[in-house]
Specification:
Helices cover 36% and strands 21% of the residues. The chain is of the alpha+beta class and 361 residues long. The longest helix has 21 residues, at 258-278. Its cofactor is Mg(2+).
Length: 361
């Protein structure tokens, strides 16, 4: 089945963490709030009221407070977010089993063939958004098109609490007008390079030959060449393979004492083991992440031929990686992650859908 035969929905909750906090605490409604942050942290999510002042996720709390002096910081409650996310996903599964969660607050759905035999993907998206609001009190936005890339771009167009369908006959014009920074896989560095080459929209990419794009952007050149022509064959994967498990801590005050560092590495090793053991996950590559006071980041990994088996192994390896660090500075954040997991050995089943494509709407 070609990508033009599929009906894909991307559902994205509106300011999810912040919206849950405003839902549970009516006193926060209509106010600029940031989940996370505080004295030393970073913003995990910002309400739309806070976004008007330029507050964004991953922004240092100090910067967020400077942009919005009356910003209210709220500690995160991940168990609560997971609880709400579970309710939302249960709604998705009433329409299709082809659900690919990207995080707690967004997912792809392939509704080419759906459990309710609804022909219009646009109608399905409307129903899902209405159901989410009725059952959780939260709003969601959605994008609908023939592939994951277009659906994801579309879901951002009418946010919050809206949806956008990009029909097959409109894809070419839509992509030609799309700013290059909106293309999935084009980060700030690549976007700036494109700007320097007078590439600002999809139409500018389309003018380049495959050979030219490959010369300019290496392997990504083929990807951009296909993308601007609406070619994106990635299927909705209902069983996404977990590729890493990570734990990290941002400290209230910078750490420089070796004993404090040692204690934190032990604590992180234990937390990592607890997470892994719950899901019977093993891995061969351990990575130590260090963020310094000036926000510079350093990572170093060590890979074994056999799987790590215990928190003691994580700790010993983390300690050795710590000794290899190039800078002896105060530390703002420490993290440990395990990759090269046994989950990657599991084979995914490719589901072939056999239903003729009709108009999305």
């Amino acid at each position: 089945m070609t990508s033009s035969q599929r009906k894909i929905i991307h559902v994205d909750m509106d300011a999810f963490y912040a919206s849950v906090e405003q839902l549970d605490n009516p006193d926060l409604k209509g106010k600029p709030i940031a989940v996370g942050g505080g004295h030393r942290g970073v913003v995990a999510a910002a309400s739309y009221e806070a976004r008007k002042f330029g507050v964004r996720s991953a922004m240092p709390s100090k910067t967020a407070k400077e942009k919005c002096p009356h910003l209210i910081f709220v500690p995160p409650r991940f168990p609560r977010y997971k609880e709400v996310s579970k309710k939302i996903r249960s709604i998705f599964y009433e329409y299709t089993d082809l659900v690919e969660p990207l995080s707690l607050d967004e997912a792809y759905l392939d509704v080419t063939e759906n459990k309710k035999d609804i022909e219009s993907a646009n109608q399905i998206a409307k129903e899902i958004r209405q159901r989410i609001f009725e059952e959780t009190g939260l709003t969601a936005s959605a994008g609908i098109s023939v592939n994951k890339f277009l659906a994801k771009v579309a879901s951002d167009i009418n946010k919050p609490n809206g949806q956008k369908t990009i029909h097959p006959q409109h894809i070419e014009k839509f992509l030609e007008e799309l700013p290059v920074e909106k293309f999935h896989g084009v980060g700030k560095v690549t976007a700036n390079k494109m700007f320097s080459l007078s590439i600002y929209k999809g139409a500018d990419i389309k003018k380049k030959t495959l050979e030219e794009l490959t010369k300019l952007f290496g392997k990504s050149g083929q990807y951009y060449y296909n993308l601007v022509r609406g070619i994106h064959r990635s299927e909705v994967k209902p069983n996404r393979i977990q590729k890493s498990v990570a734990v990290e801590r941002t400290f209230f005050d910078d750490l420089s004492d070796e004993q404090q560092i040692d204690d934190k590495l032990k604590s992180l090793s234990e937390e990592l083991q607890n997470r892994l053991s719950k899901h019977q996950i093993l891995g061969k590559s351990l990575t130590l992440k260090i963020k310094y006071k000036d926000f510079s980041l350093y990572t170093r990994s060590f890979t074994k031929t056999e799987y790590y088996q215990s928190k003691e192994e994580y700790y010993r390896t983390a300690k050795n990686l710590w000794k290899q660090r190039p800078f002896d500075r105060a530390v703002r954040l420490l993290g440990l992650s395990l990759s090269n997991l046994n989950t990657e050995e599991k084979k995914q089943v490719s589901i072939q859908l056999k239903i003729p494509f009709e108009d999305l709407d």
